[in-house]
Design brief:
Layout lengths: L2 E3 L5 E3 L1 E4 L6 H14 L3 E3 L7 H10 L8 E6 L6 H15 L4 E6 L6 H13 L3 E7 L3 H9 L7 E5 L7 H9 L3 E5 L13 H10 L3 H10 L4 E4 L4 H8 L8 H8 L14 H9 L2 H15 L1
Parallel strand pairs: 3-4, 3-10, 4-5, 5-6, 6-7, 7-8, 8-9, 9-10
Antiparallel strand pairs: 1-2
Helix pairs in contact: 1-2, 1-9, 2-3, 3-4, 7-8
Length: 296
């Protein structure tokens, strides 16, 4: 697996397995085991995904040594404060059944992010976290956090896909020493992305799927990619992207797909900020139970 090196020297696998929306405990546990079986060594979860316990069981049952795995979790808005990070991180460690995590992120750019960051710096100093970072931060807010604190964020996990390419922001983050990490690289199927004529045509040249073309496009930009599937075949396919290269013409055609806006929502929207500020872990747990009851 190709790795990239963060600004503190920690190496992270460039391809990661995302667990967002895998809320059924058995499915999440199995998906993590299958992902590791397929070859993933980088697993991403979050407090708000409500699956840390299941992810932890999947890790434990994978048979792969802890030191070979790279595990990420994230601090939810409700816990974004100095004391909130310290307390909630310990709960995350317990749920994951781990002694440390490889990467801890502030999930959203809201709340007492300065207090949260100072707590994360302390935990990193103690060896409980190997790398610390942020998620969904605009470049100016990422720089603001960096220049007024001791540690520059090692990662910023943001939406990057062919319809929201964020080219300038990727360059700006890298200039600050912050590694960009792409969530929703396939835009969760929006705009019928898996049948997009441009991406299908490019894939046909190399006998690759649209998902593989998108993943390769990001890898060639040295962007960390998080992909999710609960199917072993798709997991294996999403990893099989190191035996071809895109041409400059391919990349130009992909550039033409850019719409320059989120395919989901704006993190600068006041209503969205209020909505996230009002969402508690208790509510996420209630939603999780409702989803499980609907599908079982």
């Amino acid at each position: 697996m190709k790795t990239v090196t963060l600004n503190n020297g920690v190496e992270i696998p460039i391809l990661g397995f995302g667990t967002f929306q895998i809320t059924d405990p058995e499915q999440a546990e199995t998906a993590v085991q299958e992902a590791i079986k397929a070859g993933y060594r980088h697993i991403d979860t979050a407090q708000s995904y409500m699956n840390e316990e299941a992810v932890g069981r999947g890790l434990a049952k994978s048979g792969v040594a802890r030191k070979e795995l790279f595990i990420t979790t994230k601090i939810w808005v409700e816990n974004a404060s100095y004391d909130g990070v310290l307390a909630s991180f310990e709960r995350s460690l317990k749920r994951l059944d781990l002694d440390y995590v490889d990467l801890l992120l502030i999930h959203q750019p809201y709340g007492d992010i300065y207090g949260a960051w100072r707590a994360m710096e302390a935990l990193q100093e103690q060896g409980k976290i190997r790398a610390i970072g942020i998620s969904n931060f605009a470049v100016d807010r990422a720089v603001d956090l960096a220049v007024f604190n001791t540690v520059t964020p090692q990662v910023n996990q943001i939406e990057i896909n062919p319809f929201q390419q964020q080219t300038a922001n990727i360059a700006a983050l890298k200039a600050e020493g912050i590694m960009p990490e792409a969530w929703a690289p396939f835009a969760e199927g929006k705009n019928d992305i898996f049948h997009n004529p441009t991406l299908v045509k490019i894939g046909g040249k190399y006998n690759k799927s649209v998902a593989q073309v998108i993943t390769r496009w990001l890898v060639e930009q040295e962007v960390i990619v998080l992909a999710k599937s609960v199917q072993l075949g798709r997991m294996q396919e999403n990893l099989d992207v190191f035996d071809f290269e895109l041409t400059d013409e391919d990349k130009k055609e992909i550039t033409m797909l850019n719409e320059g806006e989120s395919q989901f929502f704006s993190h600068a929207d006041p209503e969205m900020i209020r909505w996230m500020a009002s969402r508690t872990m208790h509510e996420f747990e209630t939603i999780k139970k409702l989803r499980i009851s609907l599908y079982n």
